Amino acid sequence: MVEMDVPPTTADELRTAILDRYESLSKRLQQIARYVLDEPNAVALETLAVLAERCNVQPSAIVRFAKSFGFDGASQMQRLFRDGLLSGNAALGYGERVRQFSQSVDGKSVGDPAQVLSEFVEGNVLALHNLADAVGSRNLAAAVKLIGEAETVYVAGFRRSFPVAAYLAYSLHQVDKKTVFIDSIGGMTRQQIHAITRRDLLIAVSYHPYAEEAVQLIEAASEQNCKVLSISDSLVSPVAKPATVVLQVREAEIRKFRSLSASMCLAQALVIGYAFASNAPKRNSSKLPVRKPAKK
């Protein structure tokens, strides 16, 4: 692993450097990299000992990680994220609030279905409040643009991700976007994508543990120079690294059961955002005055 001589000067530069060098990092440093990408506010505010515990590594490993990116030590790296924090940011402390919520829920015995419903509502509200900050308006706009520019949109999601992909495909059909839903029935995954070209778009939805079928589809799409929109829980997941645009979703986990509420909300925003964007020129042109031919 080659260390950087000059450290990044902003948190965004560090995130870019981590994404560029992730594959070259050791397994231990990759654990730290994922945490830094997923929990930037915790990195800014927590002590070295707490960060090491959260990453399941020794404190010395975090120092080594920071030095590999050109920093003198972990505190200099943390300062980048601390400088970028904004007071009142909705994402501030999200990871810590989730941990506290999980500890509170896991410590209770299950009483009645109404209690379970209340727990799922509270957990999903946390995830939904974090969604806009995690996705970002720039990435969302880029994703909508990819859908609009594509000749055909191929949509895939397997196992836990299947409902999100199915909803996306259904909704895109409803707004008259040419869409192919890759359902993999009969083991026909590769055959269902055989006609994809560089003019098309593959939307792949996958969360940990990442479906091998999704990884293979992205590889096949990349071979055809096709653009890829990934919806995943990590920026360095195997379905995110090769993607053109990545939308990161951090779902709630209640009693070890991971929800899909935030993913469904994001799917709705993507489709409705595309629908309004594609109809905008038509609405504007309809309001233009019609010039009558001049009388001779």
Brief synopsis:
55% of the residues lie in helices and 9% in strands. By secondary structure, it is of the alpha/beta class. It has a five-stranded parallel beta sheet with strand order 2-1-3-4-5, sandwiched between helices. Strands 6-7 form a two-stranded antiparallel ribbon.
Helical content class? 40-55%
Number of helical elements: 13
Task: Return the average pLDDT rounded to an integer.
Answer: 83
The spatial strand order of the largest sheet comes to: 2-1-3-4-5
C-alpha geometry: globular
Structural class: alpha/beta
Sequence of secondary-structure elements: HHHHHHHHHEHEHEHEEEEH
Count of strand segments: 7
| Unreliable residue runs | 86-92, 283-294
Indicate the proportion of strand residues: 5-15%
Q: For the terminal residues, how far apart are their CA atoms? A: 80 Å
Tell me about the largest β-sheet: 5 strands, parallel
Radius of gyration: 22 Å
What does this structure look like?
With 296 residues, the protein is α/β, with parallel strands linked by helices. 55% of the residues lie in helices and 9% in strands. It contains 13 helices and seven strands. The protein has helices at 11-21, 27-38, 40-45, 48-55, 59-68, 74-84, 94-106, 113-135, 137-149, 162-174, 189-192, 212-223, 261-286, and strands at 153-157, 179-182, 201-205, 227-232, 245-248, 253-254, 257-258. The strands form two sheets. Strands 2-1-3-4-5 form a five-stranded parallel sheet, sandwiched between helices. Helix 2 (27-38) crosses helix 5 and helix 10 runs parallel beside helix 13. The protein is globular.
